[in-house]
Amino acid sequence: MPLPSPKIFLDLLLTLAISAAGGGLAMLLGLPAGWLMGGALAVTIAAMAGVPVVLPDWLRTVVFVLIGMSMGASVAPDSLSLLASWPISLAALAIELVIIVATTGWMLSRVFGLDAGTAYLSSFPGHLSFVMGIAATGVGNARQIVIIQVIRILMLTIAVPIGATFLPIDHFEVAAANAFLSPLQLVLLATGCVAMGWIFDRLKIPAGMVLGAMAAATAAKLGGLYSEAMPTPLVIITFVLTGAMIGARFVGITRKEFMAAAKGGLIATAMTVGIVTLMTLGVAQLVDMPFGQIWLGLSPGALEGMGALGIALGYDTAFIAAHHVIRLLMLSFAIPAVVVIIRWQERRSAQRRHN
After folding, report:
1. pLDDT, tens digit (0-9, with 9 covering 90-100), for 277-309
2. Cβ(163)–Cβ(269) below 8 Å
3. Is 323 within 8 Å of 87 (Cβ atoms)?
4. What is the predicted pLDDT for the residue at 223?
5. Residue 298 in contact with residue 96, Cβ under 8 Å?
6. Buried-state track 252-280, b at ≥16 Cβ within 10 A, e below 16
7. In whole angstroms, what is the distance from residue 52 CA to residue 41 CA?
8. Cβ count within 10 A of residue 10
9. Max mean pLDDT range (99-113, 130-144, 304-318)
10. Whole-angstrom Cα distance, residue 183 to residue 230?
């Protein structure tokens, strides 16, 4: 790997400083998941203001491994005993996805006049790389799709912890750790996580590096190889890096492009949050789990962002990760099916115009 140029290195330091400053301010204000939420918002504002925000691909890989490690280390020891209650929330997840895609796609098409391809690809809650790959083949407007999707990810990162504070629900403090992983344990665990992440990536599993790292860390913890927690400074670094990664997705998007798609993106995100909240309220009546944990499991944000929030808010990351993996699996079948329907409708419309 070539060494970064001095400019890229300085831009990277500036990006991380902005994320750390935003996260630190959010923590001082007492906001939940402040290091993550504040960092993401600060870097987003900086990117939109033209600040040279950068996060190299190699550092993104490091972030994915750190998030996976942290999620695995945060898995509750009794996670497996809760599997019996998962079918209810998984059924709610499937229903929720249908409602979100149908309602937000219709809204973006009818209210904002987007073509069907742009509207419905923008409405899919997740699997952004897959969505953009299809958009690159000529389905929809790729720039509008990415802006609406990135707004969704950013707003969910901000909305979920704030909602968990103001909604009338039970709150669960993050359990205070009594022992932390030693440097040697961290090196050994990281090695296993990188190896498993590499395997998952080669198997083309979505979010492979995050899920592979989490799988290795979870297996090691449930197997009794360690019981200690991640060191607090390393967890904070992970949150700061994740915030920078989320905010850096706005690089290259002009303010004109952003404003053109922002209103539809914000309304679509608000609709999504409302649907998720209603579904979570229903599931919470049937299963004995924290409202916030169910909400994070059903919230269609990026796996790395929702997983980091789960760690920060003290929830069971195994539950959250499992639901996000299954959501991505559902979308893997749903996205091509909807695109086929869109193409069929476009051909019918073209034939009617021709006749």
Report:
1. 899 899 988 888 888 788 888 887 666 667 777
2. no
3. no
4. 83
5. yes
6. ebeeeeeeebeebbebbbebbbebbbebb
7. 15
8. 13
9. 99-113
10. 10
Q: Is the CB of residue 140 less than 8 Å from the CB of residue 117? A: yes
* Least confidently predicted of 78-87, 116-125, 219-228, 311-320: 78-87
Q: Which residues contact 123 (CB under 8 A, 6 or more apart)?
A: 100, 101, 104, 105, 108, 268
Give the span between the Cα atoms of 320 and 323, in whole angstroms.
Answer: 5
Q: What values do phi and psi take at 127, rounded to 5?
A: 60, 45
Kindly report, residue by residue over 200-218, the tens digit of the pLDDT.
889 877 667 887 887 898 8
Smallest Cα–Cα separation from 239: which of 171, 303, 180, 308?
Answer: 308
Cα separation, 312 vs 322, whole angstroms:
18
Count, residues in the chain: 355
- pLDDT above 70 (res 221): yes
| Rounded Cα–Cα distance for residues 81 and 105 (Å) | 38
Average pLDDT over residues 12-28: 91
Cα-Cα-Cα-Cα dihedral of 172, 319, 331, 272, to 10°? -10
Q: Which amino acid is at 5?
A: S
Alpha-carbon distance values, 102 to 111, 263, 271, 280, 336 (Å): 14, 18, 11, 19, 15
How far is residue 227 from each of residues 233, 293, 332, measured CA to CA in Å?
18, 22, 35
Determine the pLDDT at residue 176. 54
pTM, entire model? 0.65
pLDDT over 90 (residue 8): no
> Which residues are CB-contacts of 35 (< 8 A; sequence separation ≥ 6)?
23, 24, 26, 27, 236, 239, 240, 243, 312
